[in-house]
Amino acid sequence: MSKYDVAVIGSGPGGYVAAIRCAQLGMKTAIIEKYDVLGGTCLNVGCIPSKALLDSSHHYEDAMKHFEEHGIEISGDIKLNLKKMIERKASVVDQTTKGIAFLMDKNKIDVFTGMGAFKDATHIEITNGEKTETIEAKNTIIATGSKPASLPFIKLDKDRIITSTEALNMKEVPKHLIVIGGGVIGLELGQVYHRLGAEVSVVEYMDRIIPTMDSAQSKELMKVMKKQGVKFFVSHKVSAVSKKGKEVTVTATDKNDKEVTFKGDYCLVSVGRKPYTEGLKAENAGVKITERGMIDVNDHLQTNIKNIYAIGDVVRGAMLAHKASEEGVLVAEIIAGQKPHIDYNLIPGVVYTWPEVASVGKTEEQLKDAKIEYKSGQFPMRALGRSRASGDTDGFVKILSDKKTDEVLGVHMVGARVADLIAEAVTAMEFRASAEDIARMSHAHPTYAEAVKEAALAATDDRALHI
After folding, report:
1. Whose CA is closest to 181, among 216, 210, 158?
2. Which residues are catalytic?
3. Distance CA 286, CA 303 (A)
4. Residues 359-398: pLDDT tens digits?
5. pLDDT tens, position by position, 249-276
6. 398: which strand partners?
7. What's the miscellaneous note (predicted)?
8. What does the pLDDT read at residue 291?
9. Which of 31, 244, 317, 421 has the highest Cβ tally under 10 A?
10. Secondary structure (DSSP) of 269-327
């Protein structure tokens, strides 16, 4: 029987990063993956393939609608080859997962393919078809991720009534795609197929889209996507979804308790994700799992069994790949006897629509609820020379700072490349910078980043220079 210092169950970003860090720290490490490819949800049916389709569809939309204004004239019809677009997405996924396999080999991490299940607190059975083997692990890290959630009355046929997984492998562009859920996944995939020619209707239970982000971002993104042609129906409670032939019917109740019916050829159910812990047999190790399938952990991400840890989507907090990766590093270093930390307030959130949306820290609503006095500075992207040069003028940067100390408490952005730009805000807040600190920093011209400086100036005595 093979013996390991650490066994990691699950090879998503949290899992493979945890395994790499354990190996770097000199621990004999194994990683167990249910499927034949490494990378988990993010690399195979989540972050990476969705971004590949977002990028390809953006190119197509630019060619169809925006090239001419840049002086680029195309003779003949522009044709969409969805099959080739999906094939490109698959090749990006393949390259990325092979990269993870290379990293496992480079760091001398043993990879086991099969379903990992606890035999007891220190032994894991790995089943692959009819073959079963057992390994011994001094410590185990559970990193099994999540899967798409649904509503109890919806029957997912994975043909016309689909999840994000099926939406990444469509054989045709929908005529009318009904998206249930105005969160990150629904908006991103909705925008992909709208760019490719689908009518898209987003049905959201809450009174605004991306409800966990700052309300100004919700308002701006919905305004821009409406201008692009996406239809939104907020404060709508879905009560039924049915299929007849190639037609899908979604029934909902609006805020006035009036029944509303939507008819389309595809329905994307995008109401969040739920922890994936089925088949772990956690009870054999004594690990407690909640009724919702989530694993309880302490501040060190340790379960109620001291040698078993859990990270990523199976524990509390935002279901984000980069959050899982940080937790993977933290657990590896704790097992090695170090004293790492994570500031969960500084884990950024991003929506990869166009314009992009990015946030870190407290929203304005959270500061109000906590009765924290704050200052707010906001700067529109359209006032930037760089935005006008590229034609990406939608959006803004908003900085919230403490009214007394001027420490930055939250930064919220909508605009081109803000998914990358948010790192500046995270860095500033990690070092507890004030809005004045950011305002005094030189930002290259012309760049989108100048909006951060201008928003910081606006937050400090309303000193923005270009509005």
Report:
1. 210
2. 445
3. 9
4. 999 999 999 999 999 999 999 999 999 999 999 999 999 9
5. 999 999 999 999 999 999 999 999 999 9
6. 378, 412
7. The active site is a redox-active disulfide bond.
8. 85
9. 31
10. E-S-EEE--TT--GGGTT--B-TTSPBP--TTSB-SSTTEEE-GGGSSS---HHHHHHH
